[in-house]
Amino acid sequence: MNNSNQKSLLSDLIYIANADGKIDSSEYDFIHRIGARMGLTTQDIDELFTHPEPSSPLFSEMERITHFHKLLMVMNVDKVAHESEVIALRNFGLKMGIRPGAIDTILIRMNEYEDKIIPSQELVAIFQSYYN
Fold first, then answer.
1. Which domain of life is it from (predicted)?
2. Is 92 exposed, middle or buried (CB count within 10 Å of its CB: 0-12, 13-18, 19+)?
């Protein structure tokens, strides 16, 4: 993944984290950890909070699943899913071409977990049930 795509994906995470009007320290730290794993500098990541990159298209199913999972995690990292964040996540999912039923199932299932984070294997299984 090139640097522009990495910044675009982080910008999407920032958008979801900020959908409730604030980015708390757990969201900020999570975004920085993801960015660091991508090889971006702290300065590159901080720049995205004020100057986000536009979303980039995701072509493979695995890219969409992985990105949606990261968006779901950043939404829940502070243990509170505000309605505005849920709406933003749903809209992102639809924009990425994820079926509405899959999104709704994920949003319901996340509430079955104390930290609201669906294990990646279960998330993949949900996607497979809607796409096979």
1. Bacteria
2. buried
